[in-house]
Design goal:
two-stranded antiparallel ribbon
Length: 207
């Protein structure tokens, strides 16, 4: 099959070709890598906060993806599986150097009840009074960033995947291997904690 034809294939079809040991298996895997390499690197760079570490985890993720390709379950969505491997590779890398994720607030998006994407800061503001009126936007972002970083690991994971990467709840559940209901309850708990931290900051004095 030509590269153009492979490019038009779904993730699931590409992996089906990889696992069959067909002549175009390597080409199919290459198409999948090119499809997600920029998105995945951006995720790892934001999650890890270290370009060099992100490079290493990025390479290890696709290596593990290739080595475990025969474990792929037919019809399983490819993107969540990729994020599953990347997330656990990132966690292992951070544990080896005894560090926590350093999250960037660039492109912070989350899914609301209507499936619309919205920023984490907008969501926090919508849940209560805005104590940061008059504070510079960069200061506000820094405060939210610090609050996210202080969340327990199991809560921070769902925030990063749902509100920073924009994964749907069912995909977050797949990545973390937990029920969708658990994803929602953890997000609720995380937002409560973030809202408490948000509301604890005094309003900026008026000029």
């Amino acid at each position: 099959m030509s590269d153009d034809a492979l490019t038009a294939c779904s993730d699931e079809t590409l992996f089906a070709k990889c696992c069959r040991g067909r002549a175009d298996a390597a080409a199919a895997f290459g198409v999948f890598v090119r499809r997600y390499e920029r998105e995945l690197y951006g995720y790892l760079r934001r999650y890890l906060g270290d370009a060099s570490l992100a490079d290493d985890v990025f390479q290890n993720t696709f290596l593990q993806l290739y080595l475990t390709r025969d474990q792929y379950e037919a019809g399983r969505p490819g993107r969540p599986w990729l994020y599953t491997i990347a997330t656990h590779q990132a966690i292992d890398a951070l544990r080896r150097i005894n560090r926590r994720p350093a999250v960037s607030l660039e492109q912070t998006t989350g899914e609301d009840t209507n499936g619309e994407l919205q920023s984490l800061m907008e969501l926090l503001e919508a849940r209560g009074p805005a104590p940061l009126d008059g504070v510079l936007a960069e200061e506000a972002r820094q405060l939210v960033r610090q609050s996210v970083d202080q969340l327990p690991e199991f809560l921070r994971q769902v925030v990063i995947l749902a509100y920073y990467q924009g994964l749907k709840y069912r995909d977050v559940a797949d990545v973390l291997r937990i029920p969708v209901g658990t994803v929602k309850s953890r997000l609720h708990a995380a937002l409560q904690r973030l809202q408490e931290a948000w509301g604890a900051v005094p309003a900026a004095p008026e000029d």
